[in-house]
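My current task is to audit a protein record that another person submitted. Alongside the sequence sits a line of tokens, each denoting a local backbone shape. Where you disagree with what is written, explain briefly why. This is what I was given:
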Amino acid sequence: MSFRTLVLGAALSLMSFGGATAQTAAPATSAAGGLRAATVRQFEPSPIASYALRGGAMVTPRGAGLVGVDATIPSLSLGEGWVGRIDADVIFKANLGGVNTIVPVTIDQIRYSTPLEGTTSTYVGAGLGAVLSGPARFDGKLILGADFAQRLGAEVNVHFTEDDTLVTVLARLRF
């Protein structure tokens, strides 16, 4: 087992614990005024705050198209000020020789800036995941993005795989 595989497995395991939120219920009282129930821990699935469709291009090391989706999951956060997100893209190159595709899937942590009035909201982030076309390979990712309108934004993603460094430019349409 390689070091990258071990790091990827550990990161995914740690991030999966953020997928459920623990809540403590307040003690309930009966009509007679006595304590009826003790504190109870409940686990609820984390809500998805938003999702987005993604479209763009890989600009290096070679040209290719990109389509994908992402889901923002606030409870997947690893720290205060960070927001969790899961990204899945299909990067495809079509020519007379056929169609080649790669499918990077990452779990990301995003930090948003507080915009000044009349300015664009920006964000940075990083993620870990795998490229799933063929045998799964390690994928580390850096994210730089901006929201230009309530539902429209743009990103630059840099993927660090075992074989290449991929730079993608994409638009995000949030729902």
Residues 3-8, 10-46 have pLDDT under 50 and may be disordered.
